Amino acid sequence: MQPVMLAVLQRLSHWPLGLLHPLGAALGWAAYLGSPSYRRRLKAHTDAVGLGTRQRWAAVGHAGKMVGELPVMWGRPQGEPLGQRVQWQHPEVVEQALAEGKGLLLLTPHLGCFEVTAQAYAERFGGQQPITALYRPAKQAWLAETMKDSRKRPGMLTSPATLGGVRQMLRALKSGQTVGLLPDQVPPEGMGAWAPFFGRPAYTMTMAAKLVAQTGCAVVLLRGERLGWLAGKRRGCSYVVHASRVPQATHAVLAGGDASQSAAAINRLMEDLIMQAPEQYLWGYNRYKGPRAEILTSAAGEGQG
Hints:
By secondary structure, the chain is α/β, with parallel strands linked by helices. The protein has 14 helices and 9 strands. It has one domain: Glycerol-3-phosphate (1)-acyltransferase (3-Layer(aba) Sandwich). It has a 7-stranded mixed β-sheet with strand order 1-9-8-2-5-3-4, sandwiched between helices. Strands 6-7 form a two-stranded antiparallel ribbon. A hairpin with a 2-residue loop joins strand 6 and strand 7. Helix 1 crosses helix 8 and helix 9 packs parallel to helix 14.
């Protein structure tokens, strides 16, 4: 199955985003119309933060576009860069953090094209310091291998959410390199703490704070904005990666080692970032579910502690 999927992704990667995005949006609407539970969850989440009907409908389309752009993100040949398809806002924030030499932690929510942020970093800064991106292996073996292989690019490494992966990230940060995390996903049991997220308790990853506490690394927020066709035409690109530095007071909380306080601080950071482009967030994700139990949970927790 894996060679077939890679072949499909590679073929579709030659299609223009101007075609893949509308096709993806159609898939997003098909999923929305075909799943009552998805509709209820998305409406409840968007209502809770005050989004209107138009923004909720836009979120449906953007969730589909995320799927539609995967051939470009995963299926491009290893040596083919994103190039002019991506522009940066405030790349000097990343440059300054790297210059400090303490390692760099990049935090990105499931907002816009979050796949593009690590690849854009690798293309622009990977020659200076490579990035190790944490990923959760898929349950299907063929999909897990496809994801792993497709994300191996110059200046970019991958790390599974296991004990070995946590150790790999610690080594990378201690040697002054860069690590990327998606901190708004529900972690396994024992690897998080309950903290408010848009006014409701959510089980929140503590790994990011523990990495900061153990290494003293800098922390930068990245947001991969997906542009519409007309906006992309004007800018001459399809995505804009926005970079911002975590405030010193928040960095001090993360480095302090208190699980509850750091989880709440992480969620506040993610909330602020999400509300910069709320229609591009994955509101249909079941963010408030309980953590799952995994065999590697205790070992991973020890590796972070």
